[in-house]
Amino acid sequence: EQETLLNLADSLTREGISAFRFDFSGNG
Q1: Which of 4, 17, 3 has the alpha carbon at shortest distance from 25?
Q2: What value, to the nearest 5°, has the Cα angle with vertex 11 and ends 13 and 19?
Q3: Domain count within the chain
Q4: pLDDT higher than 60, residue 28
Q5: CA 21 – CA 28 distance, rounded (Å)
Q6: Distance, CA of 9 to CA of 27 (rounded, Å)
Q7: Band (2; pLDDT cuts 50, 70, 90)
Q8: What is the pLDDT of residues 7-26, one digit of tens each?
Q9: What pLDDT does residue 3 have?
Q10: Domain span at residue 4?
């Protein structure tokens, strides 16, 4: 059960980091 949560968090983190980087660079 914990592995599933970790995998979900990992995928969310990857997308979150990409979105955060894009948003951060966009806002300068």
Answers
A1: 17
A2: 50
A3: 1
A4: no
A5: 10
A6: 25
A7: confident
A8: 888 888 887 777 777 666 66
A9: 92
A10: 1-28
